[in-house]
Amino acid sequence: MTGASAAAPVTDAVVQLTGVGRKFHRPGGGTVTALDGVDLTIPRGSAFGVVGESGSGKTTLMRIIAGLEKATSGRVLVDGTDITALPEKRLTFLRKTLQVVFQDPMGSLNPRMTIGRIVAEPLVVQGHRDVSGRVAEVLEQVGLDATIVGRYPHQFSGGQRQRISIARAIAPDPAVLIADEAVSALDVTVRAQVLDLIAEIAARRSLTLIFVSHDLSVIRRVCDRVAVLQGGRLVETGAVQRVYDHPEQAYTRRLLAAVPRLAESLEMARARAAGNRGGRSTTTADAGGNDSGTDDSSTDTNTEDAR
Amino acid sequence: MTTTAPQQKSVPGPLLEVSGLTVRAGSSVLIDDISLQIAQRERVGIIGASGSGKSLTCMAIAQLLPEGLTASGSVRMDGEDGNLLTTPERRLARIRGQRTGMVFQEPMTALNPTMRVGRQVAEVLRLHGMSAGRARAEVQDLLTVVGLPDPQRIAKSYPHQLSGGQRQRVVIAIAMANSPDLLICDEPTTALDVTVQATVLDLIDRRAAAADSALLFISHDLAVVARICDRVLVMYGGRIVEQGPVTEVLTKPQHEHTRRLLADADLGGEQSESSTR
Question: Which end of chain B, N or C, is less surrounded by CB atoms within 10 Å?
């Protein structure tokens, strides 16, 4: 399954997962397997995408790497340290090595704290020497004016708030930046700007970027490698270009085919417009029969129905 | 615009005619004097950044504006007397559900969490005059038509027991129950997984075609709009800044904002592969 990642010679892995599993106990008895035997190597300095639909285990995987949750089996190495064996107290090193930008900036920024205090928080915890200087520096790096330190989160737009989250995340100079659906709550027009900002910061600071998203086009835009998850298992991993252009697994193909593409949609719209002279309902029924870009639209229905 | 109403039928006029629609919150203007028409069976999309007024336009047309907002201008529907903006709620309730159906982004908010799915579908049919016995049989049919497996089990389920895609199918079953003349969809697949989105779009497409319904369809995803709609309106700052057939607006955008939307939507490099970026 993980042939692609095993084949690629990885000289320096910043995150390495071996046989990682996570089971949850159902309140009423029984267990749910959120992750099952995941082997994954994230090379230092890469922009690594983790893509999957709901229930794929991508969020659980992200939380395990970030030390927010424990694997129930397997080993997780972050910067060479096995975090599965570490007691809670020793995980503080993770806070310096690894920072997370979450989906909803409003939920992750304390509304009662000024921007200055929010961004300073991880620095204060670490006993940084020039906190205010560093805060000003990172705010400027994310394209915000350093004079906003006295203001509050609600005074900013969604895109600006996500910039503030990014400033806070990069303040302690982490080796790994995890973006968990970091642009999913943003408007389309802002999304591209914030994505570019994340990619640019990761490149400039030689960060390892782990980008978790359900959105295939977002991953394609910022990542060089990608892992595809489905039902808690790793389906496929490899270079973004290779996986997107030549997916090896049926699920990856199905996932990629389901993304609506403007060129294809416009093709269908042209066909409809041409067919409209003959009556609209027949043309649309025809279009409905052989569209969706795949030859397995019936399996699509089945998969979804099974949930 | 010659691609709309088919010529072989004598169409009495547009299904929906909105003119000078303005929506205010106190003194601030949110929708600024917009006019639009939807022909019978025509499919019209609305695109625009958030805050551009797409959803408010739909809500104003459906007479479902949130408390505190006021609409002026006129909304007329073929076969209904007078301006819907000044029509009493009792008559509107009949129009909604019988002549218009609605599908919103989050199916959970459209469904009653404490009522079994079957009863919710039956309720719409009963409200519009069907007998209890016929409604019960019709519910099974409707749930089958929207592609739900084991409709008997689904009818007995509560919304939280269904997946997001299944819930949206139930909402579509309710919206289409009375074969409405106009189906209003506001980001109907945005909360769904991409593989589920494909099947739900397909369903909307087929159901609207089968019932001869016109569509007013909002999406931030331009490819989705092109997949479903004939004509598209581009909104910006509460105004319609551009409109035309999707095949023209999305390939030869005239307004700066439309060009911007196209550029920003192009994350995966679909366009950049063929042009420079």
Answer: C
